[in-house]
């Protein structure tokens, strides 16, 4: 999709295998409180206004040619599409691809050395050092880590947190002091966690939030002794039926475990764990793997199921919540009648049954069986309502999922209950397709917690609500940017965008645990609130022992103030982290989503951070600021310097940004155009970029690199599997010598495959010697024309001709590469790092990282250390000499 405008938002979300965003505006132009809205570059009011203008331009039904209308939820989906495109186009990836790749990777010989996690310490999103215009500091989220998709807790103080891309973690003390317990699995993406009646912990892999960085899973696993054990491949339930799926929920009833997945609803005995899973219901089975329409572009959206409600008094009575968030004819609630699953069309009460009004749904029932609750997101609302996609929250007072259901909350009521989201165009439930949880206090059937962008609580069955976890504290009268305080006089809140919830006990006291885009938080179930209904007792459990940070990039430069190096990186929904050599706690100097990163090797406080769509900010002092820019705009220490493709929408969601390897003052940025600026970190305006080459209408850059003035740019367009095309252009930073490289359209005969071109690595000794990494899977796993083979290619003539050097390289998406000083080649993949030593032709596995995506690899300023930005387990380093 392309768009005429983009917007920016702090703390936004992120496909089926993403993240959201907003356009920088001056602080002086931002509406809001205290004279100007804090952090104008990510003003919520601007987002709301632009979203309101977009309503009515989009059909709730999935459209193959869906133009971007500026709708923020659509923008999140666009990011999702683009992240998935890189791994799937020009076809559809067959089930088992990641499992086979993991098996191949683990069989490679290993290099010496071991990885060291450098981000395994607290990350303070409210660090008072960095209260500049583009920061979220003072918002109130405190210590954060990566997105938590699911939570579970018991009555013995054990808490389990399932992360989006960094596996499952256990705490033995009511939260904190975490240990990973799923590192041996071939998938580290969590979809669901659930404790059964016997105390076993069930894990459904594959996050089902339909966002850009949600990875497919390898099935469902069970841990018989979750207090002490760890998950292993031997603990998988059933066969490979649920491999390469995402799991939204696991529910128990009638001696079965039920799984709501992106490929229908499945069930399995909870007593006998062997044998195959049974497909209970798929609305469009022809679109499932092996079906006659499995290679249809819409296949991933045709069998999405969200939850299962089982009648506690009659376990044979089951209601399925089925449907794609943007709408499809099959959306609705289903129950079994005379052995056949049938859509419910009446008798449900207030809970809608029409396909246009049933999207993402979450159920929860009370422990005593007297109440069932539900949240419903509406495709129609998503399409037509500028304020929210929420249809409502409902209760069935019969205790049966068959109803009748009564509405107990809508977005207007939640907005009036102390919400931070009260501006038209951005109100509670605006991202209800992505943000949902629901649970009932085991001791009180009328005490309910609901999660959307914020955390809501009712103690009277929905008659009244409180926003106990507001989105942030900006805009409240208690807020202040005062660096002597975390968030003025406001109480700490949770990070935004809620996904998982659990209630457990520790030392005889009950706590609610919430998982969101910033990690895990807890408070007492019978906690306290202030006069606004905001909780006064949230505690962040992101103590640094749990590192699930989702990095897109990493940058390293000398720390001139303290010696050593400063390490920074862009993150999903957690901005830009800054770790200086003397830090015990990381800080955050930019908010929102962090994309690509440039850091001056000679000075680690010279930083450029990309938000999305080439919205670039730059600072020359690490964005150190005490907030004085609010009263004196001249004291801002970061500057928006986006090239023009940001404003026109002609750049990818995470767009490529690079500095010339021989001259850090020359930068290359890629959108439709190849942009160059030569002022380095002293750039102060987007007008300082010069377009040196037009890649062509409909083409967008996927990778750029430069050395000694020679520039390489890879592109795709169309980038999905509808006519997918890719290419490479080469030229000079001064605008001369530009030409397109002739690549066979199909990638046949060992040449560069017709797949997404993800990265370049230029030989520092010879700019005509360059390596190319290729994403996606080979023809073995990709059902599509021209999928080709190979993941790493080499050119010795400036890109004119290429040679496949993949050899024993695992068949896994390759994301980034770097040439080491001794001539070796390190490549980051979706499952770890591999290395080819100088003078050798075969590949080795570097260390033993879990099965986590490494989206970028870079070297330290002295070239001795390799840095790996993982999308789920933080940043790791290893000595380059240990790889040989």
Binned strand content: 25-35%
Shape: globular
Number of helical elements: 6
With strands numbered from the N-terminus, the spatial order across the biggest sheet is 3-34-33-32-31
Oligomeric state of the chains in view: single chain
| Strand runs, count | 58
Could you provide a short overview of the structure?
The two termini are 44 Å apart. The chain is mainly beta. A five-stranded mixed beta sheet has the order 3-34-33-32-31, with no helix packed on it.
Describe this protein with a few key phrases.
single chain; disordered N terminus; mainly beta; five-stranded mixed beta sheet; globular; 32% strand; 6% helix; four-stranded antiparallel beta sheet; 58 strands; 884 residues
Question: Can you walk through the features of this model?
Answer:
The chain is mostly beta strands and 884 residues long. The chain is 6% helix and 32% strand. The protein is built from 6 helices and 58 strands. A hairpin with a 2-residue loop joins strand 17 (332-337) and strand 18 (340-343). The longest helix is centred in the N-terminal third of the chain and has 17 residues, at 72-88. The protein is globular, with a radius of gyration of 25 Å.
What is the topological layout?
Elements lengths: L43 H11 L17 H17 L3 E2 L3 H10 L9 E2 L5 E2 L23 E6 L5 E5 L4 E4 L7 E2 L9 E6 L5 E5 L14 E4 L23 E7 L2 E6 L2 E6 L8 E4 L23 E6 L7 E5 L9 E6 L2 E4 L17 E5 L6 E6 L1 H6 L5 E7 L8 E5 L1 H5 L21 E4 L7 E4 L3 E4 L7 E4 L28 E9 L2 E8 L2 E6 L14 E2 L14 E4 L6 E6 L5 E4 L6 E5 L6 E4 L2 E8 L5 E4 L18 E3 L4 H4 L8 E4 L2 E8 L2 E5 L12 E5 L5 E8 L2 E7 L9 E7 L6 E2 L16 E6 L7 E5 L7 E2 L8 E4 L7 E2 L9 E6 L5 E5 L2 E5 L7 E2 L8 E6 L5 E6 L4 E5 L5
Parallel strand pairs: 3-34
Antiparallel strand pairs: 1-49, 2-58, 4-5, 5-6, 6-7, 8-9, 9-10, 11-12, 12-13, 13-14, 15-16, 16-17, 17-18, 19-20, 20-21, 21-22, 23-24, 24-25, 25-26, 27-28, 28-29, 29-30, 31-32, 32-33, 33-34, 35-36, 36-37, 37-38, 39-40, 40-41, 41-42, 43-44, 44-45, 45-46, 47-48, 48-50, 50-51, 52-53, 53-54, 54-55, ...
């Amino acid at each position: 999709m392309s768009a005429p405008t983009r917007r920016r938002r702090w703390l936004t979300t992120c496909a089926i295998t993403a993240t959201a965003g907003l356009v920088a505006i001056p602080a002086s132009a931002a509406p809001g409180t205290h004279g100007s809205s804090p952090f104008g570059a990510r003003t919520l009011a601007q987002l709301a206004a632009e979203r309101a203008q977009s309503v009515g331009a989009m059909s709730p039904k999935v459209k193959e040619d869906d133009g971007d209308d500026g709708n923020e939820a659509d923008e999140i989906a666009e990011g999702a599409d683009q992240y998935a495109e890189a791994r799937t186009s020009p076809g559809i990836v067959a089930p088992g691809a990641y499992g086979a790749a993991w098996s191949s990777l683990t069989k490679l010989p290993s290099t010496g050395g071991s990885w060291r996690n450098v981000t395994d310490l607290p990350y303070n999103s409210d660090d008072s050092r960095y209260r500049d215009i583009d920061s979220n500091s003072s918002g109130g989220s405190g210590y954060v880590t990566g997105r938590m998709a699911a939570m579970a807790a018991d009555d013995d103080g054990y808490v389990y947190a399932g992360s989006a891309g960094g596996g499952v973690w256990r705490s033995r003390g009511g939260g904190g002091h975490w240990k990973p317990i799923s590192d041996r699995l071939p998938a580290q993406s969590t979809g669901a966690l659930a404790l059964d009646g016997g105390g076993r912990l069930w894990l459904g892999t594959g996050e089902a939030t339909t966002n850009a960085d949600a990875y497919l899973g390898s099935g469902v696993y069970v841990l018989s002794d979750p207090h002490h054990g760890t998950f292993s491949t031997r603990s998988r339930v059933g066969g490979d039926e649920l491999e390469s799926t995402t799991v939204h929920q696991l529910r128990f009833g009638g001696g079965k475990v039920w799984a709501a997945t992106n490929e229908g609803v499945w069930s399995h005995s909870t007593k006998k764990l062997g044998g195959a899973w049974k497909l209970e219901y798929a609305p469009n089975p022809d679109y499932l793997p092996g079906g006659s329409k499995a290679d249809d572009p819409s296949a991933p959206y045709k069998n999405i199921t969200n939850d299962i409600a089982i009648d506690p008094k009659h376990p044979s009575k089951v209601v399925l919540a089925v449907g794609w968030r943007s709408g499809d004819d099959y959306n609705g609630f289903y129950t079994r009648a005379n052995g056949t699953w049938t859509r419910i069309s009446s008798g449900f009460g207030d809970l809608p049954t029409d396909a246009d009004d049933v999207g993402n749904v979450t159920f929860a029932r009370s422990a005593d069986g007297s109440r069932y609750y539900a949240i419903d997101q509406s495709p129609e609302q998503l399409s037509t309502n500028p304020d929210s996609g929420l249809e409502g929250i409902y209760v069935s007072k019969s205790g049966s999922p068959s109803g009748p259901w009564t509405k107990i909350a809508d977005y207007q009521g939640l907005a009036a209950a102390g919400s931070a989201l009260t501006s038209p165009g951005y109100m509670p439930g605006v991202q209800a397709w992505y943000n949902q949880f629901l649970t009932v206090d085991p001791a009180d059937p009328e005490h309910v917690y609901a999660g959307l962008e914020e955390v809501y609580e009712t103690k009277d069955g929905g008659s009244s609500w409180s926003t106990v976890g507001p989105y942030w504290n900006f805009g409240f009268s208690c807020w202040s940017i005062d660096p002597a305080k975390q968030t003025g006089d406001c109480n700490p809140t949770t990070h935004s965008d809620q996904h998982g919830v659990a209630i457990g006990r520790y030392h005889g006291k009950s706590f609610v645990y919430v998982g969101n885009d910033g990690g895990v938080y807890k408070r007492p179930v019978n906690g306290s609130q202030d006069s606004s209904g905001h909780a006064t007792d949230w505690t962040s459990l992101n103590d640094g022992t749990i590192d699930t940070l989702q990095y897109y990039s990493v940058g390293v430069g000398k720390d001139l103030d303290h010696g050593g190096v400063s390490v920074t990186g862009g993150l999903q929904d957690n901005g830009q982290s800054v770790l200086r050599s003397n830090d015990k706690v990381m800080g955050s100097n930019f908010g929102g989503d962090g994309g690509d990163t440039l850091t001056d090797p000679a000075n680690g406080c010279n930083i450029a951070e990309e938000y999305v769509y080439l919205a670039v900010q730059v600072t020359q002092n690490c964005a150190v600021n005490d907030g004085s820019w609010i009263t004196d705009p001249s004291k801002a220490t970061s500057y928006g310097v986006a090239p023009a493709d940001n404003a026109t929408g002609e750049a990818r969601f995470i767009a490529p940004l690079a500095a010339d390897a021989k001259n850090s003052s020359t930068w290359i940025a890629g959108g439709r155009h190849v942009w160059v600026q030569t002022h380095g970190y002293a750039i102060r305006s987007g007008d300082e970029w010069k377009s040196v080459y037009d890649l062509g209408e409909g083409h967008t850059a996927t990778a750029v690199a430069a050395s000694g003035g020679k520039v390489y740019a890879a592109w795709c367009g169309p980038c999905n599997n509808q006519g997918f095309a890719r290419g490479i252009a080469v030229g000079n930073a001064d605008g001369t010598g530009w030409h397109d490289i002739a690549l066979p359209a199909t990638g046949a005969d060992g040449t560069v495959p017709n797949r997404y071109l993800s990265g370049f690595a230029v030989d520092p000794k010879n700019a005509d010697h360059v390596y190319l990494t290729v994403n996606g899977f080979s023809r073995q796993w990709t059902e599509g024309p021209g999928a080709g083979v190979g993941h790493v290619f080499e050119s010795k003539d400036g890109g004119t001709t290429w040679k496949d050097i993949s050899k024993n390289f695992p068949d896994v998406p390759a994301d980034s590469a770097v040439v080491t000083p001794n001539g070796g080649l390190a490549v980051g993949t979706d499952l770890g790092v591999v290395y080819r030593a100088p003078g050798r032709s075969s590949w080795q596995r570097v260390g033993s990282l879990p099965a986590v995506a490494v989206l970028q690899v870079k070297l330290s300023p002295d070239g001795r250390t390799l840095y790996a930005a993982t999308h789920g387990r933080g940043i790791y380093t290893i000595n380059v000499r240990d790889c040989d």
